[in-house]
Amino acid sequence: MEFVGYVVKIGKCYFQQKRNFDYTICESFFDAKKITKLDYAEKIAEETGGVVKHLYVSDKKLDEYKEQ
After folding, report:
1. pLDDT at 68
2. Could you tell me which residues come within 8 angstroms of residue 18 by beta carbon, excluding any fewer than 6 positions away?
3. Residue 24 β-bridge partners
4. Sheet arrangement for strand 51-57
5. How many CB atoms lie within 10 A of CB 13?
């Protein structure tokens, strides 16, 4: 398993982007913004009432990605 970043989960949705103090959320995990800095993820979670989730990729998925 390899750590690749964080996502912010808000209820059943995920943080997608912030533009001019407006937040966009999405239902699909795959469309969620992958955040690399923990302090930024925690700030977004605090502002939106969400929680920070650690994002890992399995070795099998890493191998598939490298083949492409």
Report:
1. 45
2. 24, 44
3. 17
4. 22-26, 13-19, 2-10, 51-57
5. 18
